[in-house]
Design brief:
Blueprint lengths: L3 H24 L4 H23 L9 H24 L2 H8 L2 H12 L6 H18 L8 H29 L4 H21 L6 H27 L2 H7 L2 H13 L6 H16 L3
């Protein structure tokens, strides 16, 4: 079994890949709630099959309310992200939302008693510099109205992401991790299904994109929860900055977004930050 560090790296890289898939959904104007409904339904099926294969019983004791909260948080956060990606490029919106790293690390140190050595503090500093470097580069093609809307959505995303992070942590350290995952998927699918009913409804495009995203999301979510069950949350979230590396590179390759010197530096700083966590 991989240790928590490599589980966090795998989850982060897959989440970065997923971010670009969300950008494609936004560009094609596919109904976000329908995509999320399909994504979470497929995720719940994958999790249940995994539990059957492993002989793990379904037991929602102690994780039901956590699953309900995650369902609400996931739909709210992802819907805000997809809307934000409609008005901002991936390589501008996502670095802004990554500022939730500060909140997670602060709460982990203050309330969970986690500690960072000198190298890890340097890694955190480099991760934050990378994010701030990106935030200083406003895209000239983003109008002031879209920029304000994107910032508002990013702030909403940050607040929800911090709350979701610690809810996931509580589920990860519970005795019923797999049942928590199943509950989270089911609750997210229910919330997404209700929103889909009052939105545009299901379409072939929503089913296709939702199912494809579900594959990477299932592996990434499981890897990160396993990491949270074993490792310090503050360091796991610093590693999470690696998703920007994948998002920047793939948005350049697939979405033809600019790859500037600042963005190349971001990638390098993110890699160095993660390396320092292993010192």
């Amino acid at each position: 079994m991989l240790d928590w560090f490599w589980l966090a790296v795998i989850g982060s890289l897959l989440f970065g890949y997923q971010l670009v898939l969300y950008k494609i959904v936004a560009k094609k104007n596919v109904d976000k709630f329908a995509v999320l409904f399909v994504l979470n339904t497929v995720g719940a099926i994958f999790t249940y099959i995994y539990m059957l294969i492993k002989g793990i019983p379904v037991d929602f004791t102690g994780v039901l309310w956590l699953g309900i909260l995650i369902g609400i948080f996931f739909i709210s956060r992802t819907a805000a992200m997809i809307e934000g990606l409609k008005v901002m490029p991936v390589n501008l919106f996502m670095p802004i939302t990554s500022l939730h790293l500060i909140g997670v690390v602060a709460v982990s140190i203050i309330f969970l008693g986690e500690q960072l050595n000198a190298f890890k503090w340097i890694g955190l500093l480099l991760a934050l510099i990378a994010v701030l470097l990106f935030n200083s580069e406003r895209n000239s093609k983003v109008g002031i109205t879209n920029f304000k809307k994107g910032i508002t959505l990013a702030i909403f995303f940050i607040i929800i992401a911090i709350a979701a992070g610690f809810t996931n942590r509580a589920g990860a350290i519970s005795k019923n991790l797999e049942s928590f995952m199943l509950c989270a998927w089911i609750m997210s699918a229910i919330v997404g299904g209700v929103c889909t009913y009052f939105s545009k409804g299901l379409s072939f495009q929503a089913i296709k994109h939702g199912a494809w995203i579900a594959v990477s999301n299932f592996i990434a979510y499981f890897a990160v929860l396993m990491a949270m069950a074993k490792g310090p949350m503050s360091e796991i979230y610093i590693i999470g900055n690696l998703k920007l590396l994948v998002a920047v590179l793939l948005s350049w390759l697939w979405c033809k977004e600019r790859l500037t010197l600042k963005r190349i530096i971001l990638v390098l700083l993110s890699i160095i930050a993660v390396i320092l966590l292993r010192v």
